[in-house]
Amino acid sequence: MKEDPLLIDVFRAYYDARKNKRNTRSQLDFEFNLEEKLVRLYEELRNHTYKVGKSVCFITGSTVKREVFAAHFRDRVVHHLLYNYTAPIFERTFIADSYSCRKGMGTLYGVQRFEHHLRACSDNWRNNCYVLKLDIRGYFMHIVRQKLYDLTMETLWRYAPRKNSKGKCWADVLDYDLLEYLMREIIFNDPTLDCEMRGTHKDWEGLPKDKSLFHVPKGRGLPIGNLTSQLFSNVYLNALDQFVKRTLGEKYYGRYVDDFFIIGKDKQHLALLIPKLSSFLEEELGLTLHPDKVFLQQAYRGTAFLGIFVKPHRRYLLRKMRSRISVRMDMMNRCLSGREVDRDGLLYISCVANSYMGYMRHMNCHRFKRVLVERNVSFSKRGDFRGEELVFVPFLTGFALLFFPFFPVSHLFSSFFPL
């Protein structure tokens, strides 16, 4: 008997959803009678009886508060299923300078492309150029769901007769009835209904109303925290990307979620683009530019983008980024002080520390790295800090800070913790 491809896709989506979620309570609960639950989910999807479950709402962030709706693990499986089906199609429509929620891209790639555009427009900093940087007010909370649904389905149906990378038509590979059903269920689902609140009412104090789904008009807003919301945010603003690149003809343009920039040599020309962009966003997408986050300045003075301050031939971490890294490193230092941490915890902490150090290798912040390492008393230091690649080797009582510029990290870890 031939297996239904949908059942295989559901199992594959489950394995995708559980990555980095193996120890969460929702995932562990789902693993009880796993096959039975996945088969039941498969039957609901096949019969179009699947309904989105209850979400968990909480506030995250100390400096900038954000309202997050975390979906149940069962719904996360469906999100990954829909993502695996539709992302290859949507990926073909995106421009090269859309950086968020795309494989091989991210904040560092966005900063590198931003600097690349600055160099290209200024002839490697020999000539003057200007940067126009803008932001959309309450982006996720003001997405028009009906407009989003129309954009997603129009794109999917437009690509239905076209061939994928294997030479098969998308209409023959994908179940478009299922896609349309899942799009409706996920996009038009209101997570504020019957949600589980985590925290106290005090946590919501200071959160602007235009950043909360509880105060947005009906038919607007997507929950922050879902994989599909990240994908849909790219699809929704792809219209803006095409408008800037095709209609306005701007060459030096890039966007990360709702932060975008345009670089040019004529300051007056960039200033005239602001009302055009504002009108397009309001008329076509129902969005508004944030009036306090419109910046137009000379490039050589330096411009902040994605937590990095870019100046000619150098990059610096913004103060908020340094503070965030310091708080996280201090927290890990306290975890290692006077207590034993299990093997998984040590490996997690070492990976986080090395991730920060690897990220900061791309910035001009040698002094900050030096201070960051030296002030953590639970780090056992060996050798001098000369800016080489850092490798944190976890021990039961803390870290040994070693310097192996050419030594594979995987070999180093395996010598202490055979996997």
Automatic annotation (TrEMBL):
Residues 1-310 form the Reverse transcriptase domain. Signal peptide: none annotated. CDD domains: RT_Bac_retron_I. One of its GO terms (molecular function) is RNA-directed DNA polymerase activity. The chain crosses the membrane at residues 390-413. InterPro entries: DNA/RNA_pol_sf (IPR043502), GrpII_Intron_Splice-Mob/Def (IPR051083), RT_dom (IPR000477). The keyword Transferase applies. SUPFAM superfamilies: DNA/RNA polymerases. The keyword ATP-binding does not apply. Keywords: Membrane, Nucleotidyltransferase, RNA-directed DNA polymerase, Transferase, Transmembrane, Transmembrane helix. It comes from the Bacteria. Belongs to the bacterial reverse transcriptase family. PANTHER family: NUCLEAR INTRON MATURASE 1, MITOCHONDRIAL-RELATED, PROTEIN YKFC. This is RNA-directed DNA polymerase. It comes from Bacteroides eggerthii.
